[in-house]
């Protein structure tokens, strides 16, 4: 598959890093030759310098033979125009564009078959907003990710001493809760992955991933953490695109305060938001936080576009008594440094965004992908096609699929039914199998297994 990545900023570089590791034919277009040289030194890719929307530049990048365009420059209009040019002049099969302005994304008719030639619109701000909203539904969760159109969710939590299942083997989960469909799919202990088994004992501090229908999530979490009280009072640092979207989505369900440094921006936010208290000031100002009763805040979330400011304000909020602090961090080096030790949770815009892209490059019928643990692991949802004898999966039990040890089947979604994926569970045509891959190098094995029987796997 030949993929053109337009834009070599943070998101573009993250996309290239993921794709280059999987041996795709990648060409990157950017205006900055220095950035392109750095990427060439790191990855086995092609590069072209120039404006990503100009036809001659796209031609030099090989757009005529491209299977996919990923337009992620910092300019919405450039991304839209590049996709339109690629469609009109070269009929590129699939075009993905990052679009940040809500003025574009709020109108669904603007894109698609009857509109502008963008097949998939990705808004990192909306993805982050949805991610934060998901976390707030389940106090104590570190990730909440949807599969099968929300019928099943993947949740990660840190096990806490005193939870009924902590210091006990995994098999006791279904002794405590015999009717649940939940399945523990992975455990990370001090950063190292463990393949879960019934005899595996969960220890305090383990990062535990499980899949479950939404109605069962809180009950399973209580087994791993005890009782977490619902959030009520939220405080956000940063009134940019993300801050505004998050406040708008949450202000009618929570008590929300938003801190914005720019007085003009704060005035506009106060006019646009209906039920949010907008404060003008520096979120790293100790006196401001104390005056706003930071010790009574359930969640403090630093989501400015400045990593250092986010880290400092989150650390200060935690020191002053905020129940849980979250920091948005773009640079992976910073994220690895502060997570767990200095703040409760780090959100990476790149990791949250990359899954939306990866499902469009995965071979086989993959309908959902989530990149996990800085891209080292992955959770995906594949659909079984064909009939027994022709398909590599239909008609076979889980144990007969030949899955490598690092691929952990979670659940099967069959119509409206959610089924635990046991060793003797037989896969039927149309089943959605949700799997956890502890190592991304195992992806080709899964892709070949779930390749449509009428299509030869690459």
Nutshell version of this structure?
Helices cover 31% and strands 26% of the residues. The chain has 15 helices and 22 strands. One of its GO terms (cellular component) is plasma membrane.
What distinguishing features does this structure have?
single chain; 458 residues; alpha/beta; Rossmann fold; Alpha-Beta Plaits; 6-stranded parallel beta sheet; 31% helix
Anisotropy-based shape: globular
**CATH top level assignment of the largest domain:** Alpha Beta
Counted by DSSP, the helix tally is 15
Mean pLDDT across all residues, rounded?
Answer: 90
Radius of gyration, in Å, reads 23 Å
| CATH architecture assignment of the largest domain | 3-Layer(aba) Sandwich
Task: Tell me which oligomeric state these chains represent.
Answer: single chain
Q: What is the third-level CATH name, the topology of the largest domain?
A: Rossmann fold
End-to-end gap: 9 Å
- Widest sheet: strand order? 3-2-1-4-5-6
How many strands? 22
User: Quick one: CATH superfamily of the largest domain?
Assistant: NAD(P)-binding Rossmann-like Domain
The main sheet comes to: 6 strands, parallel
Number of domains: 4
Helix content: 25-40%
Indicate the structural class.
Answer: alpha/beta
The low-confidence runs, each spanning 5 or more residues with pLDDT under 50, are none
**How much strand content do the residues show?**
25-35%
């Amino acid at each position: 598959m030949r993929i053109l990545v337009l834009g070599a900023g943070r998101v573009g570089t993250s996309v290239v890093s993921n794709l280059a590791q999987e041996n795709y034919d990648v060409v990157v277009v950017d205006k900055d030759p220095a950035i392109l040289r750095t990427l060439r030194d790191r990855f086995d890719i092609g590069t072209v310098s120039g404006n990503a929307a100009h036809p001659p530049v796209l031609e030099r990048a090989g757009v005529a033979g491209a299977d996919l365009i990923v337009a992620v420059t910092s300019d919405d209009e450039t991304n839209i125009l590049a996709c339109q040019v690629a469609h009109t002049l070269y009929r590129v099969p699939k075009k993905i564009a990052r679009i940040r302005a809500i003025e574009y994304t709020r109108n669904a008719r603007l894109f698609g078959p009857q509109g502008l030639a963008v097949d998939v619109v990705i808004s990192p701000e909306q993805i982050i907003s949805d991610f934060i909203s998901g976390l707030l539904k389940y106090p104590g969760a570190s990730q909440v990710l949807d599969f099968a159109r929300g019928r099943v969710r993947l949740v990660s939590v840190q096990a806490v001493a005193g939870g009924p299942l902590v210091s006990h083997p995994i098999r006791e989960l279904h002794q405590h809760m015999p009717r649940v469909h939940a399945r523990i799919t992975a455990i990370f202990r001090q950063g190292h992955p463990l393949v879960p088994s019934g005899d595996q004992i969960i220890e305090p501090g383990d990062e535990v991933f499980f899949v479950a229908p939404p109605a069962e999530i809180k009950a399973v979490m209580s087994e791993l953490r005890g009782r977490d009280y619902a959030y009520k009072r939220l405080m956000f640092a940063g009134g940019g695109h993300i801050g505004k979207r998050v406040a708008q989505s949450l202000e009618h369900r929570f008590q929300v305060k938003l801190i914005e440094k720019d007085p003009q921006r704060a005035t506009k936010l106060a006019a646009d938001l209906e039920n949010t208290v907008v404060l003008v000031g520096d979120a790293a100002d100790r006196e401001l936080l104390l005056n706003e009763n930071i010790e009574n805040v359930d969640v403090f979330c630093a989501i400015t576009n400045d990593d250092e400011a986010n880290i400092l304000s989150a650390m200060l909020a935690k020191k002053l008594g905020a129940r849980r602090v979250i920091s948005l961090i773009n640079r992976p080096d910073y994220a690895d440094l502060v997570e767990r030790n200095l703040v409760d949770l780090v959100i990476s815009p790149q990791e949250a965004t990359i899954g939306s892209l990866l499902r469009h490059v995965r071979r086989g019928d993959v309908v959902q992908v989530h990149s996990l643990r800085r891209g080292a692991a992955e959770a995906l949802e594949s659909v079984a096609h064909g009939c027994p004898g022709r398909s590599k999966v239909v008609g076979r039990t889980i144990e007969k699929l030949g899955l490598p040890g690092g691929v952990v089947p979670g659940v099967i979604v069959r119509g409206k039914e959610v089924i635990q994926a046991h060793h003797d569970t037989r896969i039927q045509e149309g089943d959605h199998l949700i799997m956890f891959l502890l190592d991304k190098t195992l992806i080709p094995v899964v892709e070949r297994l779930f390749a449509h029987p009428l299509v030869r796997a690459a």
